[in-house]
Design goal:
The complex is a heterodimer of chains A (162) and B (80).
Chain A: H1 3-6, E1 12-17, H2 22-37, E2 41-46, H3 49-54, H4 65-73, H5 89-101, H6 106-115, E3 119-123, H7 124-130, E4 142-144, H8 146-155, E5 158-161
Parallel strand pairs in A: 1-2, 1-5, 2-3, 3-4
Helix pairs in contact in A: 2-6
Chain B: E1 8-11, H1 19-29, E2 36-41, H2 46-57, E3 60-67, E4 70-76
Parallel strand pairs in B: 1-2
Antiparallel strand pairs in B: 2-4, 3-4
The chains are: A alpha/beta (162), B alpha+beta (80).
Chain lengths: 162, 80
């Protein structure tokens, strides 16, 4: 057995999921799956646009007019691609290219990550600011603050911000 | 190494990154320590990813065999 695997404590990967962009989310879940499949304990810390990525689509929801308006603009789920979205055309082209290549979809990667035991923790401040409740999210293991992220990151050998 | 030497065969042909290593991880979980997993793939990246995955997880790459576009990797489970 290699020296790495012989270490008593499992290795850990933590990723800050800040962006809700569809292509960036693809990178997050690709790496999260690879790390979990390599025996790492994986924690994803969703904040700001990342929390919207986890939100079940719903419009006109929120405790006040601004959050209600926001939920119309961004009802939930992944946003467009970060470059060349071209009013959804780029997104469509990119998805088609992925499908033609036989690559897993974002949805498949997200579900696979859950199957492999990837932990989803969500920023408390982001939920409050955007008027999103824990029960509005598709998956959420825990609502936490930045201190929890720092604790996870401190123990991690792989730590990314996407 | 012959195909019959494997205790479990997982066909990953057609799968793209990162799904072959996800299937490898799922396959290895089903085996007992010392058993051999065979992964069949046509993804070129696995030439690098299989040894890397073995280095990270501690499982042992004991052989590989290429026929046409498909490569079979034989991995011995080292620990639970």
């Amino acid at each position: 057995m290699s020296e790495i695997a012989a270490a008593s404590k499992p290795k850990k990967t933590t990723i800050v999921v800040f962006s809700g962009d569809w292509d960036k989310a693809l990178a997050v879940f690709n790496i999260a799956n690879a790390a979990a499949a390599s025996g790492h304990q994986v924690t994803l810390f969703f904040c700001l646009w990342g929390t919207v990525l986890l939100k079940k689509p719903a419009r006109f929801k929120g405790p006040n007019i601004l959050t209600k308006l926001f939920s119309v603009l961004r009802p939930g789920g992944p946003a467009g691609i970060s470059r060349l979205d071209m009013g959804r055309t780029g997104r469509w082209m990119f998805k088609k290219l992925l499908r033609d290549t036989g690559a897993a979809t974002l949805e498949e990667l997200m579900e696979s990550a859950r199957d492999l035991g990837v932990e989803f923790i969500v920023c408390d401040l982001s939920l409050n600011v955007l008027g999103i409740k824990k029960e509005d999210l598709r998956w959420c293991d825990e609502v936490v603050g930045a201190g929890t992220y720092v604790a996870h990151a401190t123990e991690s050998q792989v730590n990314l911000f996407i | 190494m012959e195909a019959t030497d494997a205790d479990l065969v997982v066909d990953c042909t057609g799968l793209q990154c990162p799904m072959p290593i996800v299937e490898m991880a799922k396959g290895i979980r089903k085996l007992a320590v010392g058993n051999i997993l065979r992964i069949d793939t046509d993804a070129e990246a696995l030439q690098s990813d299989v040894p890397s995955w073995c280095k990270t997880t501690g499982h042992e790459l004991v052989g590989e065999e290429t026929k046409a576009d498909t490569t079979s990797y034989f991995i011995r489970k080292a620990s639970e």
